[in-house]
Structures are given as C-alpha cells and as structure tokens.
Design goal:
Chain A has about 325 residues and is mainly alpha-helical. Chain A is about 70% helix and about 0% strand. Chain A has one domain (about 1-330). In chain C, strand 2 (about 105-115) and strand 3 (about 120-125) form a beta hairpin. Classes of the chains: A mainly alpha (about 325), B alpha/beta (about 800), C alpha+beta (about 200). The complex binds iron/sulfur cluster (4 copies) and FE2/S2 (inorganic) cluster.
Amino acid sequence: MIETALIVETVVKAIIALAVIAGMAGFATFIERKVLAFMQRRLGPMHVGPYGLLQLAADGIKLFTKEDIIPQNVVKPIFMIAPVIAAASAFVAIAAVPYFPEFTVFGYTIHPIISDINVGLLFIMGAASVGMYAPLLAGLSSHNKWSLLGGARAVIQLLSFEVVSGLSILGPVMMIGSLSLINMNDYQIGGVANWLIWKQPLAFVLFAIAGFAETNRTPFDLIEFEAEIVSGYATEYSGMRWGLFFIGEYANMITISVLVSIIFLGGYNDIWIIPGAIAMLIKVSLWIFLFLWVRAAWPHVRPDQLMWVCWKVLMPLALINVLITGIVLV
Amino acid sequence: MSDIMVTIDGIKYKAREGESILKIARRNGVFIPAICYLTDCSPTLACRLCLVEIDGKRAYSCNAKAKEGMSVISSNEEIEVERKAIMEVYDINHPLECGVCDQSGECELQNYTLEMQRDEQSFSIADTSRPSHDWGFIHYDSSLCIVCERCVTVCKDMIGDSALKTVPRGGAVLDKSWKDTAPKDTYAMWNKLQKSLIGLASGGDTLECTNCGECTAVCPVGALVGSDFQYTSNAWELTKIPAANPHSSDCSLMYYDIKHTSIKDHKDKIYRVSNDFHFSTLHGGARYGYDFANEIDKKDEKAFKKAVKFFKEEADSIKFNSFITNEEAYILQKLKEKFGYKLVNDDAFAYKKFLQNYRQVSGKSLYSSNLRDVKDSNFVVSVGSFIKSDSPNTGYAINNAMTMNKGAGLYFHPIADPVVDGYSKNLMSISHQAGVEESILYLLLDLFGDKEAMPKSVVDYLASFHKTVKKTITEVVKEQVKEMVKDEESGEEKEVVKTVSKNVEKEIEVDVNSLYGVVGLPDDFDSKLTKFLAKKDKFSLIVGEDLYNHKRAENLAKLVGLIERFTDFNTLIIPTSTNTLGVSLICDLDESVGKKVIGYNEKADFALSALGKGDLDMPALNQQEGTFTAMDKRVVPTNVALQFNGYCLNDIANELGLDAENTIDYTPELGNIDGFKNEEFDDLPNEFENSGFENRGYLLEEKNLTCKDEIQEIKEVTFGDGDLVYLANPVMQFSAFTNKAHQLNEAGALYVSSDFLEKRGLKDGGMILLSNGDAKLAIALKLDMQIKGDIPYLPTFDSKLDVLPFFKDGYRFAKVEMKGVEK
Amino acid sequence: MELRGFKNRNVSPGYIFFEGEPKPLTSWEQFKRFLSRAVKGELFVGLWIVLREMIRFDIHTLQYPMEKLKMGPRYRAIHKLLRLFDSGSERCIGCGLCEKICISNCIKMDTKVDEKSRKLVTQYSINFGRCIFCGYCAEVCPELAIVHGSSYEHASEQRASFGLKEDMLTPLDKFKANKQKEFPGFGALSKDADKFVKKTPLAY
Ligand code: SF4
Ligand code: SF4
Ligand code: SF4
Ligand code: SF4
Ligand code: FES
C-alpha cells in the first residue's frame, strides 16, 4: 500500500515537476526576450496577447506545427535522438532537486522532491553530464561543418567545466558531509548568516562560473556562436527537435539556479518573515535574471580564453579551495 | 602647293601653302574654337570665334591662308575676352530650352558657352518674335538659330541646291552705345547676327531641294532638325553604329543612331542617321531611308530547309542585284565554283563589261579618279549620268569643285536638270539627243586629247569631222573720231576725241566641227569653253550609268579608256548601285539565267528576300556586317544596326558545304581576288581622322596593264520620232529598300517635267497609258520640278510597278507610245 | 590593388592613433591582465549600464504598423512626378537629364512632339529593381519634376508596380484637392537660393 502510494506520488510529482519546469523554461524565454529588450531600450514581443504575453504560446504552436526537417545526409536515428537526450537528461537531473520545504495537504505530507536520494548532488551532476551527449551526437550526426564544430566545442567546454564545478563543490560537501541536497539545505537553517556562501565564497564563485559555462550562457556561449559557427550543433535542427534542445537548455538553467540557491544561498529556509518557499522562488528568479543580465551586458570569450581560464585559473583555484577547506576542517 | 612651316603657339607644323590655319591646327590637335566653319566649304566669318593672332595681327583662322614662316597665337587675353563676349552675345535671348531641345548634349552653343565659362550676361537687346517652321523633312526653329550660316553654306558649297538663304530678322536695331562697350569683333558679329535669320531661297513654305538633310546635320544648335526625329530622343541615349551608306555606291560613312523602341518595346530601333559632316556628306536616301530592316520574329526552319533543298536539287542559277556585301558576293562566287550555278546580276554584268573594255584601252585596272579628286579638280565633265538621282554624292563633288575651286565644267545629259544648272554658272548643261554619247566622247578626245600621242587612226578620224568654212560675220570695229564741240558757257570750241562703234562685215575662215552639231552644242560654245578653261589644271571626267547598257557600250568604254590615256582627264566610272563595283570584281557573272532560278532580292522561282516578301527572309543591309566596295575604290566596313532573327546567306552556304561561322570570316578571303587585301573584318577602321584623312577600310590595289587601241567609229543610235522614256529614280529613291523606309515611302509614277504637262495639256496626278510592243502600263503622272524637257522617267524603286519590260535591251532610254487616259 | 596604398595613408594631423594595449608576453603578464580585467570591475560597469537602461525604461521602439515614422525631407523613397502648381500640367519636360545622370541606368522615357509642337513625355519609367535611391535624378531635374517620395511601404507583386508615369505622377484629383506638396528634399532650392541668382539684363 505504502509502495503504491509512493509510486503514485512520485509519478504525480514527476509529472508536475516536468510540466512546471517545462512551462518555466518556456516562460523564461519570454522573460529573456523582454529583459534583453528593456536593457537595450526596446519593447520586445508586444503583439501576441497583452504585452506579448502569448508570444510563448505562439512560439509553441509554431515549433510544434513546423515541418520536422531531417536533412538528407544525416545519420538519421542519432540525429533524431540527440534532442531527446538533451531534454531528458535535463529533466532527469531535476529528480533529485528539492524545491520547497515540505508541506502538508489534507494531512498528507508532501516532499517537493521527486526522489531524495542520498547522493543527490552526484546524481544531478551525473545526469547533467549525460546531457553532453546531446550536442556531441547532434554535431556528429548532422553532416554539417558548423554542427560538428559546435558539437566539439560543446564537449570540451562541458567536460572542462565539469571538473571545475565538481572540485568547487567538494568544499561544501566536505563541510556538510553529505551529498543529499536536503542535508545541504538543512545545514544552513538559521538565517542569512548561516549561508554557506560566507564560508565558501571561492567555491561559490567558481561554481557560478562553471554554471554559466555548463548551461552555455553568455559569456560562454561559444557552442552556438552565430558569427562563427552559425547555430553550432543545432544548425540543422528545426521545429520541435530544436525546441527540445531549447527546453533542455532552459531546464538546465533552472536546475543550476536551484542548485546554487540550495547549496550556497540558504536553500528554502525561511528568511526573517519570508517563508522558505517564497524565498526560494525569489532566489531562483534572481539567478535567472542574473543569467539574462549578464547576457545583455557581456561579450563572448574566445574558446582558447575559455580553456585557459578553466584549466589555468579556475581548476587550480578550486583545488586550493579544497585544500584550504580540508586544512580548516582538520 | 608646296610644303611650308607654320608656327602655332611656338610649335612648328608642316602645312601646305594656302591652307587655312584652322585646318592646320585641327590636323595637329591644336584647339581653336570655331562654329561657323565647315571643312571643304567657304568660310562665312559669321562667328569670329576662330580669332587668332598671326604675326601680331588679328585674323580669323578659318579664313587665313598659311604662308611660310607664319607665327600664330591661338589664344591670348584679348582674344579670350573677345571669344567670351561672342558667346555671351550668342546667348542673348536664346530660349532656355535645352531641356527639350533635340541638340542638347551635342550642341555647340551649349559646349562653347560652357567652354568659355559664361554664366553671366552683359549684353541685351529686345527680343524678336521668331516662329518655328515646318519645311517638310526639316523643322526650323528660328528662335534657336544662331545664324552661323552653316546650313546656307553647306547647301550652296557642298550640296549645290542653294535652297536656303539669310533673310531679314526684322529685329531691334543694335544700340550704338554697344559699339563703345562691346569688344570690336563682338560688336561686328552681333550687328550681323541681329540682322538676319534663315529662310527658304524659294520663298515658299516647303523646301524645294533634293532633301539631303545635310543642313540638319551641320546645324550646331537645335534650330534645324529632322521633323521625324524631333523630340523623340535625347542625343546621349542614342548609340551610334558606324556603317556605310547602303543605298548608293558612294558608301559614305554614316551612323545609325539606335535606341530601344519604347519603354514597352525593348527592341532596338533606328531613330535617325547622322554623319561626320565635316568629312562625309549624305544624300536624302541615306539620311531618311534607314528603316528598311527586315523584321521577323524567329527563324523559319521550314523555309530554310526548302531553300537548301532548292539550292541542292533544283536551282541552276542565282539572280541577284548589287545591294549585297562583298562577302555575300564572295559566297555566291564560291557556290558557283562548287555547284556551277549561273550568277546573274544585270547591272554588275554591264558594269563589269564596261570596265573590262575600259581596262583594255586605258591600261589601268580601275578608273583613276575618286570623289576626293573630283572635289579637288577644277574642270569637270559628266557624261551619261543623271547625276542628282543616280549618284548625288558625285553631284555634290562636282558642285564643290565648282564653288570651292572656281571650277567649270560640262554636263552632258538628255534630260535637263535645273538642280545641276544651279551648281554654277560655269557648269554648262548640254541636253543632247539620247544615243549620241559616242560623239560626245569623240568630241572630248578632239577637244582635249594629246593629238601627238594618240593613235594615228583616231587622230585621222577626228580630223574627218573638221571642215574649214568661209563665213561672213559682222564685227564690231571701234573707231576714234575727232569732233569739234562748242562749250556752251564759254562759247569756245574744243576738239574732242570720241570712240564710235561700227559694224563691219567680214569674211573669215572658220573651222567647223560637225560633232558640235551632232551633240547639239550652243553657238557660243567655243568662246565659253575658252573662258572656262582659263587657269584650269585638274580635270575630271565622270561617266555614268547611261553608257553601261548603251548599244555601243563596248566602244564607249574604249573611248573612255582613250580619254583616260590621252587627255588630262581623270575618269570616274560611277558604279550603278551600292556594291556594283565589288560584285563586278568578285563574281564571275553570266549573261542570262537558266531554268530554275533563285533570286536574292529579285523575283524568281525561289526568292530570298530582305524586303520581306520572298520565300525565305534575309537580313537587310542594316542588319548585316560586311564590306562594300565603294565608288572611291575603297573597301569599307558596315555594321549591324539592328538584330536579324532569321537565316542569312552564310547559313545556306554552310548547309551546302562551305564552312564559315560568320559571313565576315570571308572578309580576309577576299584577298584572293585581284585588288582586294587579306584583312580581318574586325581590323578594318571606319572613321575620319581630325585631319580629314579617310581611315576607312582599305583601298583597292590598282595595276597597270598593257593596252590596246581598237576603237570603232561612231555608229549612230537613233530613236526616230516619238516619245522617249528614261529609266531613273526620283531623288532620294534608289531601290525598293529606300521605298520601304517610312519617311520615303511613295507610289511610283511617271515623273514628268512641267514642260511635258503643258505641252500635252495633262495634269499632275493624271493617268497615262504607256505602251511599247508587249509592254503596257497605266501609270499616274507626277510632276517633278527638278527636271526639264520632254523626256519623262520611270522609276524602279516601287516593286509594284514592273517597268523593266519597257527597257528590254537594258538601255536606259526607250521608245514608248503615250496615250492620255481619262480618269 | 595593393594594400600598401591604403595603409600608408597620409592622414592629416589631428588623428589619434590607438595601437591597443601591449600584448602580454609571459604567462605571468597574462595572469596579471586576467586579474586586472576580472577584478577591476569593468565587467560590472557593463552590468550597471544595462541595468540602468532597464530601470530608466526609455524605450525607443516604434510599434510599426500601428505607429509610423515621419520621414525627414531628405529621405529618399520611391519617386514622385509632380505637376505645376498653377496649371496642373506635368512638370517633366523630357529633358532626359535624370536619365543621363542615373548611375544605375534605370530611368527611361518616351517622348514625342505633340500637336502643339511641344515635347510630350508619353511614358516615363524607373526600374526600381535597379534604382539605388541615390537622389541624383531629383537633384539634377531642372523642373523639380522627379522627386523622392517619403513613403517607404513598397510591397507589391511586381517591382514594376511603382515605376510607371501613372504610378508616380500626382493624380489630378489629388492635385485638385491641393494635396500636392512642394518637395523640400534633395535637389530642391535652398531658402537662400535667390541670393545666388545673377540677373540677366533685359532690354525692355
Ligand atoms: S540650341 Fe543648344 S543651347 Fe539652344 S536650347 Fe538647344 S541645346 Fe540649348
Ligand atoms: S539654322 Fe543652324 S546652321 Fe543654319 S544658320 Fe541657324 S544655327 Fe546656323
Ligand atoms: S535615385 Fe539614383 S539610381 Fe534611382 S533613378 Fe534616381 S538617379 Fe537613378
Ligand atoms: S530631369 Fe526632370 S524634367 Fe528632365 S526628364 Fe527627368 S524628370 Fe523630366
Ligand atoms: S569659324 Fe572662322 S569665323 Fe566662324
């Protein structure tokens, strides 16, 4: 009985998380356009719905109804499956992310996490890493030079920054002694002063930078840098398949925002009078806003600069951080 | 005229004595502004822009004759002031109408006003109403006229029609105060300008001239333009296609000015014909008869196959005329060599025979003169050419020789021609009986021949015409008589010597030449001729079409040969039509056709035609590139003005086994023929240089041959009593091609003089029935003011009229019976 | 052409040449540059500027089909042929100057002589497939007949749709309703044009 309930609950949660995250990802695109427009003294989408709100729906309809073009010389199955990997891995990663404090509805306590596994963080990072296959496969199968270049760039970028993000997060993990995100959240109960950011500032910065890189956001969006490689690995994609890549990217963005909020910024604990859930929403929103803000303000870096920063600056710093944490802990 | 040295602006140039300074300057690329001067015409000194300083004195360079050691300054400050003021005067009251003016863009007034940088006016005078006139082919807008008199000059000195003159302007009188303020020459030129405009010499409303349109060409401004061209195109939109006159054997350099037809129709169209008027003159046929192109939409493959089949299987002869290029003639000749077709071309055949006979006696492969020589000569004799219709350009050359070299001449033709009479007082027209040309040539031999060098038989024969006759003449003797006169006032008597004329009868011996009577020379011929011949040193003899088909053509040709050899005359044997000379040199012609005939622009069993009515369409001469052999013994190129979409002779030839991509691939092959050169078509130049040097095509090579003198005696050709009719085209018409042009299109008629109408009580436009044996023709009468006498002429240009049956033996005169037909 | 000619331009004094910062040669210099760039806060200046603009909310967007830009007088769009204000007859006299000056060679006109013995422009066309809207034609026109319009909405099934005389000429009804405006743009007389006119003496 308990098992059945668990299954039902998990499935329901999964569906809700999927729907909400997908919706948010879509909404994020709208917000992105608006924010970028405002920052550039434009209005952004205005015509569909009030203030262009329904632009999202229009885009959705467009993406869904567009012809699914599969170019002649692509490796068909791989070409078709790559976007699915992108979206799936992004959503799988979501499974181990707690969003809100637990709450009770009709006497039933709900944990807003699909599955609290004790190696949650590892799981998330692992699942997200699998997402790397999407650009790689897409690039290789597309029979297109831009795609190939884009795929290659994606792989080196993601692989490299995986190292940075992994190392940078080691510090907090060492302090908390758990890989479960709920434990991490709980570690920071007790107000802003208890946030891990104060104890691990370097780790926070490194993780944030790695987060930008792993989600292909400016200034690290070399993977689909139009001026150099058209649309990178997604060059040959259109319609819904392209949409899947897109959703994957935004879902990743949300995941990273949630992760940063939970690991470094006090998670879903109440702040002063602000309830935890709201605090969490605000934090995540601010992070997403930061992603957009940065995009509006900063230029790209070159691939060689990216590698240089990763291996010669960030990785040593992360190692130092681990070392210092260890020394302090011992 | 010897070579001298003249200095212009410090640089020495070679020149001929007596040449104008302007000519020397132009030849050497020294710029002296000049508006009113026309090469080969007399300077009018209307514009005074060509002012220069010669040895410290002002002179007009168009008029100043070069002398050894002259030093000329083309421009200095004083002259500049004068020139600028002159341009300002020209601009007074000149309507600001460049926007619509046809000359805009090639207007000399525009150009010089800009050249002299005039943007201000310092002179003024009340304007006069100057209306514009439509003079038929020509439109005159007097408000644009700057009275440079170029039109008047060209018409008189070059064309010989003298149809234009200056007339009073009726404008305000120039205020005397300008005399003090305006520069000297400016004032003088303004004074003259303010008094005149251009009008018709006839005083009527339409031009009664040969309508050459040369005045519209020379007009530096937009005052004289072709009525048909008026306001249809701006000068810069037109592309000039250099070509050669396709209608007559002068083959003058001319340009087809082409542009797209309209916004809706992008096909090219010829808008007008223009020329380099300083060096080449066009007649009306060339100027207005340009739109004879054969326009077809696409290749007619069926007809082409039929044509090839006809060539291969049926035809045994090809009949053509001389409105073809040398290359086409060459193709026909090659076809003859390959398939043995008979080549029949009546006019070239006659011409060829004539030339051959001439050659035998003269010892020269070609006649010795050309149009330039005629222009440069000062005594010209023309025999057997109805010159203003047959070869207007030769007429212009004669006129030019008369006016520019103070020349004199004799014009022998059965039909009196007021136009030719108008050339000069010193050109004696002799309207002789048809058929006496032999006597005329013998007479010329007698008058001008070198009796010592001539064969004895000829000298003896000539002597047989002379008789010494006693004659009583009345002579005026002047006697001086002394007389006493009483002075009335003083009452004194004085002896005064007075001269009194007395008539005295006297018997003298006179040498009478019986040829005079045969030819019908006037009584005072001898005395006139003596006057004519004073100070003459360059002689030209022009021989025309009448002789080639003459019953005595062979002997006539030989006589011309004798004249060439034993007199000072240089002869010009006018080729009948455009390329008669070329065809006669290139093709081996046959006398008559065989059973199945292909006609090229001729009626036949299978007709290839550029006129658009045949079995297979051919390109007209303005749709072809190739060369003509011009009267000047020059091979000149002509170019494609309009696209032709069908097949040409070369396509047929290729189908029959010849091999050339383009017709002009045969141009160098012409070198195989005596006289022609091996030159690529694309290497042939087609222009006049600044010096007037004719850099067009190449000259035929001439050869000296051994000569024989087998001359026959005169054999009379008479027609007896009754009416004669002559075969000729009216002015401006040369063939069905000119008649196809929209400006020239007309129905053929029997062209008659007013004498003719009067004598018979007929009316212009009435009908008449002509008959001669089998040939019968009811035809309208058309009054031609430009002929006199009793012989009317029948034209060939109207393909609806078949007049040739009247002239069965080819001779241009035929006897007919005329019956007035009631309308 | 060789590039040297372009590089050795003899530019007049007053130009300031910016060579860029010296390139870091050693890794240490590179690291220093990285640090200075990262820490100096330049990045935050960028962030601040875009944020500031967002807060100011000074939006420049023109919502096109609903709102439209008013073009300046010198804007050069599809041409118009004007009429004379007093008589209403066409201004173009067919002088062909526009045709001559047009660098794209896209103006054509048909002219003829009319019954009154004047030059009549029967058709006038501009090939807008070729026109580069340089304005030379309007500038050269002595009659101010061909001018540039200011309307920039030119979608049509055929590019020929705007290029004939009937498309460009002010329609008579519009003209009668006094709707033809004098053209102030390219080629029009300047306000002080009178000052430059030299008077021609007249004898009466
Ligand atoms: S004649 Fe020459 S200057 Fe006079 S209106 Fe015509 S183009 Fe202009
Ligand atoms: S009509 Fe022309 S050529 Fe004749 S005088 Fe006038 S301007 Fe000169
Ligand atoms: S705007 Fe320029 S390109 Fe266009 S028609 Fe006028 S001159 Fe020609
Ligand atoms: S420049 Fe003006 S007047 Fe002249 S043709 Fe062109 S539009 Fe007409
Ligand atoms: S050219 Fe000599 S006066 Fe006109």
